Amino acid sequence: MPALLASLPPHLIRALAADWLLAARADQLPPCPALGDWTTWAVIGGRGAGKTRTGAEWVRALALGDPAFTARPVGRIALIGETFADVRDVMVEGPSGLLGLTGRRPRWSPSRRRLEWDNGAVGLAFSAEEPDSLRGPQFGAAWSDEIAKWRYAEAAYDMIQFGLRLGAHPRGLVTTTPRPIPLLRQILADPLTVVSRARTADNAANLAPTFLEAVVGRYAGTRLGRQELDGEMIADRADALWTRDRLEAARVPAAPEALRRIVVAVDPPASSKAGADACGIVAAGLDGAGHAYVLADATLGRATPEAWASAALALYHRLCADALVVEVNQGGEMATAVLHQVDAAVPVTPVRATRGKYLRAEPVSVLYAQGRVHHVGALPALEDELCDFGPDGLSTGASPDRLDALVWALTHLLLRGGSEPRIRRL
């Protein structure tokens, strides 16, 4: 075979290299007709496993009417990401997105959120943050990317299904790194879904060696690595203080219009150097019936004190909060001093941890069991920490910064008499 390839003229070698049917792995090609009358193709894989390339090639093949993928061109295709920025930056303009594929590119109009091929087929970009934008439009196919991260996953996915009504057999593609959210479980359990799985390591030839050494080497075999690298659906940790079902039962689409209290809690890191912990920033409110609502998770990765202070204060002002609760074990007076430097008018309530993280978190988890805490929409990164937190901390050994901030916010509102009758409207 190498001798045969060497004998071919350069333009044929380039053509073969660009042929997706030859270059793709088996898990990157759609189900064959022999697998039955499927309606959803779920591509479940680790980070960097080639999911975006799979989705982009599938969409292009449908739009151009590639006979290996479809009997005739699909004229209207929905492209749905977590936000419009994700559709633009990953699904369309990204290195593995639709504009990065070889061959004649479609015309992309970001202002119209529209891709157009020469044959008249169009791809329409939608944000899962706006489920109602999917009411009305109709499609012959839909590509839903990173669905496990969507804030309004079920609402957006339901609208997509109602819109898949063009052509003889409209179908959908879901590409995502898995999280054990109810919607993804439902999709995978549906008899009309065909599932392809891929690990990060399967796409090693297209990944930077340093990434494979630093990231794959560090997380391989861990709970987080099994989910993010191997694409496994990791069930709830048996000894965790929170469960997915409990969090799902606590979810509401919106907080009450009037809340008696709104606080922003901050768990600042001890350092902003490489490898430092994140800065946990979580906001929660309290209604007149003694129920708390987790409103936002604005946690920052490695950041300077000025950066996390600005982020916390921005959330404070956006939500019209009445207190900023800050753990002072790390940095002591420095944390409050930085906040006052950025905005001296904001009241800061310092709190100090005298017990371990598990002992502080346990009474807060009881509040969830009592039905007194509700999550407003989906907060996936925070919820991942809650469901992976047991007596020995997170299974990765990392610091539970989001969880800590949540615990401080809810402790302040519900366990320390923080119920002064102030009305705050969202």
Strand content: 15-25%
CATH superfamily of the largest domain: P-loop containing nucleotide triphosphate hydrolases
pLDDT averaged residue by residue: 87
CATH architecture annotation of the largest domain? 3-Layer(aba) Sandwich
Which class do the helix and strand fractions yield?
Answer: alpha/beta
Q: How many domains?
A: 2
Distance between the termini: 66 Å
Shape: elongated
Please report the first level of CATH classification, the CATH class of the largest domain.
Alpha Beta
- Largest pleated sheet: 8 strands, mixed
* Helix amount: 25-40%
Total E-strand runs: 19
Radius of gyration: 24 Å
Helix tally equals: 15
Biggest sheet: strands side by side, in what order?
A: 3-4-5-2-6-7-1-8
Could you tell me the CATH topology label of the largest domain: Rossmann fold
Summed up:
With 426 residues, the chain is α/β, with parallel strands linked by helices. 34% of the residues lie in helices and 20% in strands.
What is the topology?
Layout: H1 2-7, H2 10-18, H3 20-23, E1 40-45, H4 51-64, E2 76-81, H5 84-92, E3 107-109, E4 114-116, E5 122-127, E6 141-145, H6 153-163, E7 171-176, H7 182-189, E8 193-198, H8 209-219, H9 223-228, H10 244-249, E9 251-252, E10 258-259, E11 261-267, E12 280-286, E13 292-297, H11 305-318, E14 323-327, H12 333-342, E15 348-351, H13 357-369, E16 373-376, H14 380-386, E17 389-390, E18 393-394, H15 401-415, E19 424-425
Parallel strand pairs: 1-7, 1-8, 2-5, 2-6, 6-7, 9-16, 11-14, 13-16, 14-15
Antiparallel strand pairs: 3-4, 4-5, 10-19, 11-12, 12-13, 17-18
Helix pairs in contact: 11-12, 13-15
